[in-house]
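Consider the tokenized backbone below.
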């Protein structure tokens, strides 16, 4: 975990610090970059609501892949507040997701790290991230992503969901508890792979810097490390994100149906639909997430008797 690189002269990060710092950082990252997430989700969903599919300026059209163009068009046609539809469940989910991810990763990393250097091999970094991603998906990510995606999709149609709580109520009434976990397989695949690459890449960079006496305390270095991790994650895991989004649309479909639908929409390239928009978000998101984590943990560690 980011708090444990200088293990030889610093104490372990208390679990409560990993939990709180991870949750706070996740919420900050989510709120700051949500319009890009909104635009990406719009592109990945089916576009039968588009009144003019040939119009590339239509925010519902899959050809509109410029995130700034989609954001500006939605803001102009639907109002700026439309860009934040589904934000509340995402902020809650991001707090839980990143709290679990950082806490789990920190525990696994501490358990398997080299006792002298405090570092892990790149493979073990990836495996630690994958495990924490599975925990995050099962405990927080799947239901909150389901509500967010359903709200965004519903805005293109009948608009039967008045709010996130109302969406939860209707989905539960119509499909039961498991309806909130629609897309669990796709979400878990995405979270396991994304967390493996994001946390693995970030911590591999940190280990490299520690071994070569490169300062890791500067905000710019932390932001750059996080951004590189974000780009790597996006390019490696985009198909899982597309499958997850399709599974969690307003109506909800199975993972197999989602895969078939995406393939029918555009073949293998359709699985990378929304990559540009996701990159627009993850370049900033990775930097914001890890920089926020480092800074919050720096504030919290002295309160719980730990040093960095």
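A designed sequence for it:
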């Amino acid at each position: 975990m980011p708090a444990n690189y200088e293990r030889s002269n610093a104490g372990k990060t208390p679990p409560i610090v990993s939990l709180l710092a991870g949750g706070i950082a996740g919420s900050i990252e989510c709120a700051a970059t949500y319009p890009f997430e909104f635009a990406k989700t719009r592109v990945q969903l089916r576009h039968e609501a588009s009144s003019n599919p040939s119009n590339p300026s239509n925010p519902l059209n899959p050809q509109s892949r410029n995130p700034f163009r989609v954001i500006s068009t939605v803001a102009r046609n639907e109002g700026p507040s439309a860009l934040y539809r589904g934000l509340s469940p995402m902020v809650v989910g991001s707090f839980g997701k990143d709290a679990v991810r950082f806490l789990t990763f920190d525990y696994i990393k501490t358990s398997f790290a080299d006792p002298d250097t405090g570092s892990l091999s790149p493979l073990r970094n990836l495996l630690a991230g994958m495990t924490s991603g599975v925990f995050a998906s099962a405990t927080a990510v799947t239901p909150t992503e389901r509500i967010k995606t359903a709200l965004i999709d519903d805005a293109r149609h009948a608009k039967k969901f008045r709010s996130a709580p109302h969406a939860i109520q209707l989905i539960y009434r119509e499909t039961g508890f498991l309806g909130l976990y629609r897309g669990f397989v796709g979400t878990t695949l995405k979270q396991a792979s994304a967390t493996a690459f994001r946390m693995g890449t970030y911590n591999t960079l940190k280990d490299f810097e520690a071994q070569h006496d490169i300062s890791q305390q500067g905000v710019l270095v932390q932001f750059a490390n996080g951004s590189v991790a974000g780009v790597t994650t996006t390019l490696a895991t985009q198909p899982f994100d597309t499958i997850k989004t399709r599974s969690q649309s307003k109506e909800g479909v199975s993972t197999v149906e989602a895969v078939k639908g995406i393939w029918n929409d555009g073949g293998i390239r359709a699985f990378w639909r929304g990559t540009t928009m996701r990159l627009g978000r993850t370049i900033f998101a990775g930097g914001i997430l890890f920089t926020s984590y480092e800074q919050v943990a720096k504030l919290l560690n002295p309160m719980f008797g730990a040093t960095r």
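Confidence is low (pLDDT under 50) at residues 1-11, 47-63.
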